[in-house]
C-alpha cells in the first residue's frame, strides 16, 4: 500500500526543527519507505478495540499539596545557555 | 583480576577484607585504560571521583558491621549516559545538551549509592536511545568486544560492551524497544528489562514514556537479581511507578524449575532467523526440558504488527518528549531573531540524523488529520499485542525466544537503511508494548567469527522472580556466560 506524501517542510515547522535541503530530500524518501511499511496496520480490524496508552495504567496519581524541597535557584539555572539576574534570557517576543 | 569478577564474587572478597574497594575500582580503571581506546564503551569517566567513592566505601568496610546492610558496598557500577548522576555530565549521546551537568541523582542512582555502589562513567549510547547499534552517538561509535569490526547492539551498546569487556562489574541501561536485551545478547552478557512501572524513571531522560524502563547489565543472573532488588520499588517522583512490594529476587534462585511451563511462540520462528541462532535456541529449549520444564507451543498472532506499532507510538511520544530541548533552559543554543527561529536552529544543529528522522515521523503521525489513522490505530493494535501475551500467560509461566534474529552485524551494514535497522528489534519490541518483563542471557556462539548469541525469556507483569529463577537454572547448567572475549 502506498503511503501518503509527507510535506516535510510543514512537519519540520510543526516540530520546530530546521532541516537543510539535503536533509529534507533524504528524510522524505526514508519516511515514505517507513510509512509504507507502517501501512500494514490497516490490514487489521480494530473496531471495538480499546486503545492502550500505558500497559500498566495508573489513574489520577497525585500527592499532597504541600511544598517540597527542590533545587536552589542558582542550581536550577546552572545549565542555562544565557541567564542574567536569576532569569533565563530569551529573544524579544513582543515589540 | 578484580574487574572480571561478578558482584557476588567481589562482595564476598570485600566482606572478608581480602581486597579493597579501591583495588576493585583501580582494576576497572586499568581495564578501561587498556581496552577502551578500541571499544569506546565510555564517553567519559571521572577516575578521581570513582577512587574517592572507593575510599569512602573502604572506610565503611573497615568499621566492622557498618556495611552489613549495604548489599553493594564497594561495587563499581557504570551508567548509561541517559541517567542523571549529580555533578556529572549528562549528554544522552547528543550534542544538544552541550556541557550539561546533572543537578540531582536519578532515583536508581540514589538507591545504588545508598546500597554502597560506586557509580562511575558515562556509557555511550545511540543518541537519545534511538537506535540498535550505537552508531548514532555524537561521541563516536562503540565497538563489540568480541569483534571490533562489529556493532555492540543498541541503544545501550556502551553498557553491554563495558560489562562484556570487564570495564565495570555491572551497568545500568534503559530499554524502550530492546535497548538492554539486544546489546546484552550481541555482547554476551545478561540484560534485564523489568516490568513497566517496576523501577522509577525519575532522572531518566525520557524517550517514549509509555515504553521506557531502566534495567541492568550483569555478568550473571544472580547479579541481575541483586541489582534489581536495589533499584526496584515505588517512587512518588515517578507517577508511573507501581506501589508493589519488592521481593528478595535472589531467594527465587533455587535452581528448581520442574513443572514450570515455557511457551515457544511459533510466530518467532521466522524466515530471517539465522540458522546458528535457531540451533542455539533449539539447544536451550532441550536444556530447559532436561531441567524438568515443560515446553508448550503458543501463538502470539499479532507479532508481525509489533514493529510498525512501535515506530508510531515510540516516535509520537519522542516528538513530544524531545520538545523540551529548545535551547532555552539548558544545553546548547543557536540564536535566532525570535524564539521560534532559536528553537528551530538549536534543534537543527543539536540533533543527529536518527533523532531528526524520528521527531519528524512522530510529529507527522500526531499531526491534524493523521492522528486517528496512525497513533490511535497503533494504540489499538497495542491492545491486541498485549492481549496476545496475557492470553499466552494463562497457559505458560514464561516465553522463550531468540533475543535478536542474528548475531552482531558489521559496522555500517544497516546504517543507511533505517527500516532494516528497525526490523532487527523484531523479537524485543513486543515486550515493551505489552509492558511485561524480559531478560536476555548468553546461550551460545556462532562459529566463525565467534560471536555471542542471546536467549530471551519474557515473563508476566511483575513476574521477575519466576523469570530470574528460570534463567538462573539454565545458567547453572551451562557455561556460556563464563566465556570472555579475547581483546
Provide structural commentary.
The complex is a heterodimer of chains A (95) and B (487). With 95 residues, chain A is mostly helical. Chain A has a domain at 1-44: Histone, subunit A (Orthogonal Bundle), CATH 1.10.20. Helices cover 31% and strands 4% of the residues of chain A. In chain A, strands 1-2 form a two-stranded antiparallel ribbon. Chain B contains 15 helices and eleven strands. Chain B has helices at 7-15, 21-39, 47-62, 107-114, 157-164, 181-187, 221-231, 275-290, 306-321, 339-350, 353-366, 372-395, 418-423, 429-434, 464-476; strands at residues 42-44, 76-80, 118-123, 170-175, 190-193, 213-218, 261-265, 294-298, 398-402, 437-445, 452-459. An eleven-stranded mixed β-sheet of chain B has the order 1-3-2-4-6-5-10-11-9-7-8, with helices on both faces. The longest helix of chain B is centred in the last third of the chain and has 24 residues, at 372-395. The interface between A and B is large, with 50 and 75 residues.
The major beta sheet of chain A can be summarized as:
2 strands, antiparallel
- Give the CA-based shape of chain A: flat
Tell how many strands the DSSP assignment of chain A holds: 2
Indicate the radius of gyration of chain B in whole angstroms. 21 Å
**What is the terminal separation of chain B in angstroms?**
15 Å
Separate helix tally of chain A? 3
